[in-house]
Amino acid sequence: MAVKKSTKSSMPSLRSVQKQVLEVDEQDFDLDSTADASPTSYSEKYPASRRQIGLEYALLGLLEQSSAHGYELRKRLIALYGPFRAISFSVLYPQLKRMLDGGLIEVSHLPVTSRRSKILYAITKNGLARLQQLSAQVSPNDWEDENFGIKFPFFSLTRAENRVTIMQGRKNRLEQKASLIQNEIKNSKKNSDTYLYEWRVHTLDSIQREISWLNKMIQAEMN
After folding, report:
1. For 7-17, how does the pLDDT look when each residue is reduced to its tens digit (9 = 90+)?
2. CA–CA separation, 177 vs 191, rounded Å?
3. Could you tell me where the beta strands, DSSP code E, fall in 112-175?
4. Could you tell me the sign of the dihedral formed by the alpha carbons of 101, 104, 105, 106, in that order?
5. Which of 40, 59, 94, 199 is the most exposed place for a label (fewest CB within 10 A)?
6. In sequence order, what are the beta bridge partners of 107?
7. Which fold does the domain 35-146 belong to in CATH?
């Protein structure tokens, strides 16, 4: 069973999306606000930090594509998010155990030798429902550096209007950062600290390229 991929629906205007971004940005948003409120719901039984929820989402997204053992999951996470977000096994395995205890994933044993086997993790029906739930949520946290990089690779699971809201929020946030860095560059002297100055220029260039890319992606969604 696979998560139903999002299809395009009638899109709101860019102006209404920008208004929605501002409204979401002003909320004190609960990441599990759409969860089942019953005492037996997963989110109540297994409360988690935003970072844990982000890792849970990434793992569910990867396991929805294919089953994998722990070492392979770690490699796929690093390949997807880069070495600077490398997940240690001391973080990965407790997270997998939490998801296993919560019924989001299940394990099977893949024989390697007569005395040794690998533990293979697979997503369950409850895990697919949890993935759909997390994909449907939108909060200001989704356009910050860490979470945007987690959500975007699995955007096919997200409704089109939510994709645009998240990308527009990300663009707004980057434009704020670009403005701050431009002021720092303008007010600083290149000769005072060459490396700091060049780093600001490099950072600004990276931000401007991402803004340009987001404009292209948003336009593609709106069309």
Report:
1. 555 566 666 65
2. 23
3. 117-123
4. positive
5. 40
6. 121
7. Arc Repressor Mutant, subunit A (1.10.10)
Question: CA distances (Å), 203 to each of 59, 73, 171, 174, in order?
Answer: 30, 31, 15, 11
pLDDT in tens, 28-73: 433 343 334 333 477 777 777 888 899 999 999 999 999 999 999 9
Identity of the residue numbered 14:
L
pLDDT at 118: 86
**Cβ distance 127 to 63 under 8 Å?**
yes
Structure tokens at 79: 């390949």
Phi, psi for 117 (deg, rounded to 5): -140, 160
d(CA 155, CA 161): 11
pTM, two decimal places: 0.75
Alpha carbon dihedral 12, 16, 18, 20, in 10-degree steps, equals: -100
The structural domains of the chain, with segments of one domain joined by +, span 35-146, 159-223
